[in-house]
Amino acid sequence: MTGDGGDAGPAARGRLIEVGCDESGSDGENLTGGNTEVFAHASVRLPVPVAAAYVQEIRDRIRSPAEEYKANHLLREKHRAVLEWLLAPAGPIHGTAQVHLIEKAYFVVDRAVDLLLDDPTAALPLYRHGPQLFGPERWREFLQAANQLLRVRNEGEPEAPVDTFFRTVAAVQPLAAADEVAETLHRLAAARPRADAYRAGLTAGPPLIPVLNPLLPAIVATAAYWSAGGAAVRLVHDRQNMLTPERIAWIEARARRAGVRLAGVELVVAREDPRVQLADFLAGIARKIADDELGGRADPELAALLRPYVDPASVWGDEAGRVLLGVPETECAAPSANINSGV
To answer: Is residue 65 exposed (0-12), middle (13-18) or buried (19+ Cβ within 10 Å)?
Structure first.
């Protein structure tokens, strides 16, 4: 590998740096009924020999016979001290690592609202107030209907996801107060032509970038973070089926349009690159800490240790989690849902 592995944080202008990346919490397009509530994409910028030494130190501290270590090794209670050492301000990756968090339920709401209304400011109030206004069961039905509307795979009738979504919107409209949520629902109810056009477009074949896929926009956000100081960044990423040559080309093109200096994406086997292994640890740890927060099992001590690593551009709607994890308030957290227009 080539590239800079020196000073911490986004590099100085004009330099080329390499960053190891991995993710945790991928459930495909099933964002409202999967195994996790959070998607995490982590990145680590360290020289390969330094990263290898830290991976070895983690192995020496944990002393598990496992051939390949994963985040769950560090998340075991008996290894709490190792986890705290890894994340601590004086620890090995502090200032050289970042994690981009995506709250899946909010991601679905944002994608649906943006696709149907082209209004990024409407998603957050709907997400924040919908559960209380609709009640838990109706809110869950709304999320599931929005998820089914947007997902590419549909095993039933082609028009079924559209019918279900708009029946759900009609059912919750009387439950909303006469405020911005009511206005958003009124506009959604009138947006069936857009929904029909979106579903009709899927019959021609799956889109290059599924609207509900969080990985690719997360990679663009990671490149934006590390190139913020003017450096060009090459991302060394764990190999996976989602990252086809066509999708990598989309990532690079989208980064260029956003003014991000992305020098390329290289795919590797995670266990063969210690930077990617450290990113795998951080992604899994961050996903678990954030999942616990959303599930009412918050660990404030671990959240405080994670906070310096959280990307300010993370896609997050939950108010309590925003405060606990240090995600800034935003009216437009998620990238536009119209992500399939060109590469």
So the answer is: exposed
pTM of the model: 0.91
The ranges assigned to domains in the chain are 16-104+210-325, 105-202
For residue 103, the cross-strand partners are 38
| 3-state per-residue secondary structure call for the chain | CCCECCCCCCCCCCCEEEEEEEEECCCCCCCCCCCCCEEEEEEECCCHHHHHHHHHHHHHHHCCCCCCCCHHHHHCHHHHHHHHHHHCCCCCCCCCEEEEEEEHHHHHHHHHHHHHHCCCCCHHHHHHHHHHHHCHHHHHHHHHHHHHHHCCCCCCCCCHHHHHHHHHHHHHHHHCCCCHHHHHHHHHHCCHHHHHHHHHHHCCCCCCCCCCCCHHHHHHHHHHHHCCCCCEEEEEEECCCCCCHHHHHHHHHHHHHCCCCEEEEEEECHHHCHHHHHHHHHHHHHHHHHHHHHCCCCCHHHHHHHHHHECCCCECCCHHHHHHHCCCCCCCCCCCCCCCCCC
- Reported as a single tens digit per residue, the pLDDT across 180-222 is 899 999 999 999 999 999 998 888 777 878 899 999 999 999 9
Give the pLDDT score at 336.
Answer: 45
Q: Model confidence over 101-143: pLDDT tens digits?
A: 999 999 999 999 999 999 989 999 999 999 999 999 999 999 9
Overall fold of domain 16-104+210-325? Nucleotidyltransferase; domain 5 (3.30.420)
